[in-house]
Amino acid sequence: MTSNILENVNIDPSSFQIKKAEKRKGDASLGAMDIDSYNGIEGSTSQQSTNNKRRKPSSEGIRKVPVPSHRYTPLKENWLKIFTPIVEHLHLQVRFNLKTRNVEIRPSNETTDIANLQKAADFVKAFVYGFEVEDALALLRLDDLFVETFEVKDVKTLKGDHQSRAVGRLAGKGDVRNSQ
To answer: DSSP labels for 63-123?
Structure first.
């Protein structure tokens, strides 16, 4: 049935009028577009504005520190102590992303030294590992100080109480019952 309808329609292409697109109203310099012709094909190239008000930070300019669930409460209680030195002294932006459960640190417009970004990330990692805020602040003050961690299971396979004793001895909190 559709082929029947198409056979009965006679369209003369010469009866169509070619209409030129109208220019938009406004400043001619802002909306100006250059027409390029290449091998008989015409195309337009648009000019993008060079003054972007909000610049998206690159992935290399941001540090994300994952926070395990057992450190949420201490992070929440000490957030002001963590937030203040990062923002005021290092001139960085910091936030806790609830969706991804990461502390995100990125440079601001006032950031002078990009090394402060790594210092702040190490500071937050030290707190997440279990250091007190006052102890972790030493990472921000001193340049040659850093925190290195390892898994006890990588050194020796221990399970249960044996692992707890090994961790306690490394941390300096060994078994005090037999030391009398």
So the answer is: EEEE--GGGHHHHHHTHHHHHHIIIIIS-EEEEEETTTTEEEEEE-TT---THHHHHHHHH
